[in-house]
Every structure is written in C-alpha cells, then in structure tokens.
C-alpha cells in the first residue's frame, strides 16, 4: 500500500511540474521575464512552496521552458529534413518561439549563461544539416555559415523585445531583413 502512495505522490509531483512549466510559459509571454513567480504558481493552481520545490530560481524555471523549446526545435528539424525551404521554415519557427516567449532569454543576459550553452549547442546541431542542404540546393546565400544563423537569434530577440516595448511590429521588419541576408532571392 505504501508503494502505491509513493507512486501517486510522484505522479502528482510530475503533474505539478508540468503545470508549472506550462503556466510559466503563458505568464512570461504575457507579463515578461520579470513576472511575479507567485503569478506562475497561481496560474498552475499550486502554492509558491510547490513552485520552489520544483524550481529554486526564476532562471531554472525559464531554462526548463527553453529546454522544451529546444526539444520542439529538434523535433521540427527532424520533420523538415529533406523538405524544400526547410532551413527557412525552421528559422521562422524559432523566431515565432522567441516572439511568443516574452523575452525569457533576457533572464540569462542578467545572470549566468551556463544553462543556455547546452541548449545553444543542441539548437545549432538541429540547424546544421538543414543549412548544409540549403547551401547545396542554393536556397541559402553561399557565404552563410552556421554561426550566422545562430547570431541572428539574439539580434531577433532584441528586435522583438524593442518592438514589444514600443508597441510596433519591428519583429516583422527584422524577419524580413534576415530573409534578405540569409536566403537566396531566387528561392522566394
């Protein structure tokens, strides 16, 4: 009987963690990365104590949300493999994530960047085969390297953050600028 009680507690803890991550994604997207963690706990239907039992810091919670993003990038890259315009589609997918996440990466510019290093390597690895394919078929500008793609993301994050602050659609302008710089015109 005690074993099933522990199993039930673990299942409840896992559900709480899932709800916290989903709530953090929504709350951060709506209120930004400095949103009160109390709001995240409330949105998840748990106490602050439960939140802190799962995530000791705001950065740890944000890193978990970003980890889910990287998993979805890896999955999307695998789905796109071999498709025409795959690199552009994945690039837009990541820009959409950045726009929808309410500037979570900003948290790491104010603190330790270590949690992002592994996520950055995995994101790079997801893009590399699509970039190679795009270079082979001429859809990517011939002088583009993987680091050019990766440099574009913090630039886009800055444009998205600035656009949200002043209330315009600068992220669309940034996206158009990246398309001109990264992709071959004949491809469009």
From TrEMBL:
Cited SUPFAM superfamilies: Homeodomain-like, Tetracyclin repressor-like, C-terminal domain
Residue intervals of the HTH tetR-type domain: 14-73
Name the UniProt record assigns to this protein: TetR/AcrR family transcriptional regulator
Keywords carried by this UniProt record: DNA-binding, Transcription, Transcription regulation
Pfam families hit by this protein: TetR_N
DNA-binding annotation, residue ranges on this chain: 36-55
InterPro entries named in the record: Homeodomain-like_sf, HTH-type_TetR-like_transc_reg, HTH_TetR, Tet_transcr_reg_TetR-rel_C_sf
